[in-house]
Amino acid sequence: MFGSCSKHVFKLEQEEYLKEEIEWKLIDFYDNQPCIDLIETKLGILDLLDEECRMPKGTDSSWAEKLYSKCTKWKHFAKPRFGTTAFLIHHFADNVTYQSNGFLEKNRDTVMEDQINVLKNGQVGSQFRDSLNMLMGTLNATTPHYVRCIKPNDEKQAFEYNPMRAVQQLRACGVLETIRISAAGFPSRWTYSDFFHRYRVLCKYKDIMRNNMKATCDRILGNIIKENDKYQFGKTKIFFRAGQVAYLEKLRADKLKQCCIIIQKQIRMFICRKRYLRMLQSIKSIQRYARGFLARRRVYHMRQKRAATTIQRHVRGWLKRIQFTRTRRCIQGVQAHARGMLARRRYKAMLYNHKVNISK
């Protein structure tokens, strides 16, 4: 099973490399065909078993002796250290010891004559052969995908996982070897257009050549992967070694993250700037109204002060005029009485002097 699986994977890889003209080295893979030949070829285990069943006095132990004498030339066959009824086969997964007891009895199970007649007269075998040919044609025409069922533990208990047992199953199914074969070549491949659209973020605008995707991809990879043996260019695809696509995906994720951060930064700056301008406009409006209110109040107080000053000036002028008028009137009254008194005194003196002169 594993030999055909590995061979099929390797054959598909080889055809792809040849079609794309990729330089590659021959990959060694485990071929299970010698083990199959040991079991199925002429003078193999099953052939010797049929021969022993045809012998009148054939026994399991005599069949084991024949295996020891005939099959020692095969490197996949071995005789155990102890016992004369067991034999050892080196399978791909591990060495398996088989006990010969009961093999002849099982192999001698006869088929009823009616069943033989049905098989001879029916079309069962041809239908099976046609179905098998159709299945093989379908498998050869499609891309293989393998599904392996792994038992987490031999007891089939829930929530129990035996890692050693799981690894044994993976190795026995050939999954690890198939992965090794795939990883030894170029397991990842992209067409030039798909690669460009996927990893366009990793190049600059000046490196893009729309009419030559291969050159564009070469520029992208030349700036990122410095080891040329990690990838190769085919006619229509780019082939990558194991791990390179994961590295490119990490760079792409980092670049997209950086772009997202830049976009977020710009959006946040725009939102904060818009909020700031709105707040600034609101503050300016509040300041304008506040300054207007304060200016109007200041003007109102200035007008009140000016009016009060004017009223005070007029009141003080009126009071001063009244005080001045009263003072002037008093002074004029005093002056009038004083001048009258002095005039009367002068008149009396003149009259007295005139009388004196007349009397002389």
From TrEMBL:
Keyword field: Actin-binding, ATP-binding, Motor protein, Myosin, Nucleotide-binding
Superkingdom of the source species: Eukaryota
Family matches, as Gene3D superfamilies: 1.20.5.190, 1.20.58.530, 6.20.240.20, Kinesin motor domain, Myosin VI head, motor domain, U50 subdomain
One Pfam family in the UniProt entry: Myosin_head
Keyword ATP-binding part of the UniProt annotation: yes
Annotated region described as Actin-binding, given as residue ranges: 132-154
Domain called Myosin motor: residue spans: 1-253
UniProt cross-references to InterPro entries, sorted A to Z: IQ_motif_EF-hand-BS, Kinesin_motor_dom_sf, Myosin_head_motor_dom-like, P-loop_NTPase
Family: Belongs to the TRAFAC class myosin-kinesin ATPase superfamily. Myosin family.
Name listed for the protein in its UniProt record: Myosin motor domain-containing protein
